[in-house]
């Protein structure tokens, strides 16, 4: 089992580098300031009447720097906050919870997942207060997308929308969450690659059907890509954020 986990962990967040280039920009360093999670923040380049933020959660074996590299590709009137998971896998490598692929499908540590979910909810409350936020969109890649789904669906009052790159909705969430008025205001953006070999596209299609059954406002895209984020999906996300 350890070998299988290691093989998965050394394949962290992937970017389609043939279509994108990152620039360092002017961004803050690691912050903690008594907040529950370490994070990076880019403050809005364009001021608006409401303070809005995108909170990003990375995938297994990665860290807060990965998704923070997306900041220059996202709307300039948002705070971009990228959080570091608390479960250390090694130097600069973190996860939100342990996962076992030895059976051929992901089996999670449910207690860890619930604990991390509560930590992220507390972190959202802390940054809302710290930056006087009016709107928060919670999003992530792979395991970070899974956490975003779970929090948005179980605590829809805490966020205004969910962004899910290459993720899935956990079985426990699907079996416990039912239609309610709060979910009808939760906006969800889903992006998934049809060639995804880590979390195959059927997970995204299951999530689509589940969200539609709940009456959640959904924007759904599939792309000709693997388990990664490409420039096209970021452009679609940016357009969705402008509409929302």
Characterise this structure.
- The chain has 244 residues and is an alpha/beta fold.
- The protein has a single domain (2-243), classed as 3-Layer(aba) Sandwich (Rossmann fold).
- The protein is built from 7 helices and 11 strands.
- It has helices at residues 2-9, 64-68, 110-131, 143-154, 171-176, 201-214, 231-243; strands at residues 39-42, 52-57, 78-83, 87-90, 93-95, 99-100, 107-108, 135-141, 161-165, 187-193, 218-223.
- Strands 1-3-2-8-9-10-11 form a 7-stranded mixed sheet, sandwiched between helices.
- Strand 6 and strand 7 form a beta hairpin.
- It is globular and about 50 Å long.
- The termini are far apart.
Give the tags:
244 residues; alpha/beta; Rossmann fold; disordered N terminus
CATH class: Alpha Beta
- CATH architectural type: 3-Layer(aba) Sandwich
User: How much of the sequence is in beta strands?
Assistant: 15-25%
How many separate structural domains?
A: 1
What structural class results from the helix and strand content?
alpha/beta
Number of strands: 11
